[in-house]
UniProtKB/TrEMBL annotation:
It comes from the Bacteria. Residues 424-433 have a biased composition (Acidic residues). Residues 135-293 form the Carbohydrate kinase PfkB domain. This is Inosine-guanosine kinase. It comes from Parendozoicomonas haliclonae. It is an enzyme of class 2 (transferase). InterPro entries: Carb_kinase_PfkB-like, PfkB_dom, Ribokinase-like. SUPFAM superfamilies: Ribokinase-like.
Amino acid sequence: MKFPGQRKIKHYFPVNADNRFDRESVAFGHVNTYVTGIDQNMVDITAQVDDAVLEEFGLLKGVSQLLADDAAAERLYTYLLKHELIEEEFAGGTIGNTLHNYSVLADDSSIQFGVMSENIIIGTSAYRYLCNTSSKVDLTHLQPVSGAIGRAFALITPDGERTFGISPGMMNELSARYIPSDVVAGGSALLLCAYTLANPDLPIYDATVKAAQVAKENHVPVVMTMGSRQMVAARREEFTAFLDEYVNVAAMNEEEAEALTGLGDPLMASEAILDLVDMVLLTAGPAGLYLSGYSDRDLLRQSNNPIRSGSIGDFNRYEFSRPMLRAQCEDAVKVFAQIDPYMGGPERISNTNGAGDGALAAVVHDIAANDFHRKVLPTSGKHVNQYLTYSSFAQVCKYANRVSYQVLAQSSPRLSRGLPEREDSLEEAYWDR
């Protein structure tokens, strides 16, 4: 499944005699679908250094810390460039990664909100950010700023220890004026990250709240990632209230889920979070990933896979059901699915950054594909009921798992190309009837 995008209708939208295309829908390329997102635009910089460099720049070894100021960040960056110590320099940011990967997977457009240096010099961080972002990601709505975007330094010493130095730069200066309401309202989904809600005094906080309000008013699904365990624990009440008020899909790892709910078991944590949102994507490292949400009791589909039990008995019994918004269910039932790492995971993992963002991009793609298909073929049997995704819980799990594997197998959190076409399962064929 690679729609949205220009695709051969017959192959991607199989039909039978009882479900023909609308005449006016055949030229479906005119349907404009996209997703939007807000991010703290930053570049991830990895460099090999010795302990003397850490001492020179006043960095505590093995910990994550804010650099003293923008001038300190510029001195460090200049030093690393001069001595040719930089190994990798990639565009980063969880929403930026997700939007890029979505556009690569879907071969379709996404729109990113954030800031960007107005004067860009070849070879600098801002230049690297643009170079590492898919041309399908629309950056025309970025707010120009006079300083640098964010930079995250990962300094690796000979003993293998990683020391992180973070320089926010101007990444938090995004004004609510640069969030066009009509653009957000026209999207298939809005992507947010808890990092932009960490400090109510920063301009990007107001921009995030505005976007969430517009999306909610226009029934655009709001997708939110949860940042870090420490931040979630520090602002647990605020994030819980925001999830309950605005968010439809929450994405996190098992540590962030525990910080949010106090529950260490991924299934139990997912169940608790479903009291706040409509769907939960929870990545759990070697345990794979969990996807949970709601479906109407009359629309439940039993799984053909082995039925499994954990802290919730027979939790995957209805994983062939399609996710729905809880408000659109007459009798909402919580549904759970889980999948182990694809092929056991890559033989060699050089960097775990972005694996969760990759999985989320797959989920967002399936949500957007459903919106696209509904606009193209509103009379399709796939849309007799109001579903959140095009595919079932189980199928979305497979897709997210495969994308996560692809990210883990490379050194960058951003995909350079899409995935091989996936085969339709018998379960998926049911929905195309």
